[in-house]
Write a structure and sequence with these properties.
The protein is α/β, with parallel strands linked by helices and 527 residues long. Helices cover 45% and strands 8% of the residues.
Length: 527
Amino acid sequence: MGMRQQHSVSHNQIHRGAMAASLVLLLPCLFPSLFTPLSHASPSVLSEWNAPRPRHTRLLKSALQRQTSDEQKSDLWMPLQPQQWKPCVRYTSSAPPYQSQGYIQVFLDGGLNQQRMGICDAVAVAKLLNATLVLPYLEVNPVWQDSSTFMDIFDVDHFINVMKDDVSIIKELPSDYFWSTREYYASAIRATRVKSAPVHASAKWYLENVRPLLESYGIAAIAPFSHRLAFDNMPPEIQRLRCKVNFQALIFVPHIRTLGEALVSRLRHSPPRTNGADTATEIKQVSELKGNKFTGKFVVLHLRFDKDMAAHSACDFGGGKAEKLALAKYRQTIWQGRVLNSQFTDEELRNQGRCPLTPEEIGLLLAASGFDNSTRLYLASHKVYGGEARISTLRKLFPLMEDKKSLASSDERAHINGKASLLAALDYYVSMHSDVFISASPGNMHNAVVGHRTLKNKKTIRPNMALLGQLFLNKSLTWPEFQEAVVNGHKNRHGQLRLRKPQQSIYTYPAPDCMCSALDSATAIDK
């Protein structure tokens, strides 16, 4: 190529570059909306979600004006009548102390209540294998990023002491096994690690697959372990052992119990602190409460409505197109699109009862059940997707709503702030001491508390999710019609005992495995 030709090409490139630069400079003038600062951009395009408006305005308007008779309130707060099953006395195994065949380690993922169930199963597996259990290792939850250990959450000395006649439990491995750590198993394939335990494995599987490792190496580390022990076809003494761990051996550390007792006392005896209320209003509310024979009672609402739950449900929660796109993207990132619910429409999911109730919907359920705006409501939740804007409708329905932050001082919360497991432990404690418990969606917290309250014969409302999904889809329902349908649809869902069916969890349905007939005075005890 000659010099003249090269100069021509170079000149043309410079000319084209200058024109492109000029066009870029003119774009903000030609299309100003494209260059609006992000903080002022259209929320339907760039924000994660739009503050949702109430989705059931017709019902909400009537609910805010609701009146409840004293007779209805008496029925609501009345404790459950004694049922034909009571906790058993004879949890302890009658088998003599055994010669330990080695050490069992387990590594537990999930949140507090999934780990709680894993701990119970770990004790059972150790018993099956005549092994010594090393205090279970709690993995850091990838969602909550909480590194709390077993010792941070549970009273270890109480745990070991209660189980001493059944299973040997140690806090740390002997020095001969110093190498058996999480890091050791994460760095390579190890002969002493059991990685292939199937979900709901049988007792026979452990005897055939884990016992040989104990015989060869003196130790076996099982990871993953959550949900790795079956609920069916287990020896009765193993089932009773799981009950003993869950309902007797696992208690929270003293500072959680102390703070929990303080919150329960404040809910029962202290005047409510109403956000934004003037002094005259607060004085009026306190005087009304003093004359209210139902003062001192409270409901715990477990509201799990975090981003994980919202995304995995694949339901529409009224946050507009931006919210739908954000949750779809989150589903793809976390589960690579492998979410069964995403193949159904929102209407199909709600008809099947597969959508968690929003704060607005659980508020309407409670209001239709008869709880009025003088109800002390404790909100047990970690992080609600959408924040206060999502909760505002619930707060309008129940202005005396409290939570950990409103009831406890910053100094009292210093040891638990930022620690999801300890926050959940505090909520669990308060939930176990409430007059009524209700959960907005199934999950591990719901399952654990429902099972524990069943054992104690405490009133626990189990929402009829399919019925509620259908009711909330019907936009023509009047408040009286909605209220009648809710009351009739929950008549036998206030804590009435249900016997465990095959494959169901012993921790959610403790009868008959953890309970005895009340007619048998030798094995049943009064609470």
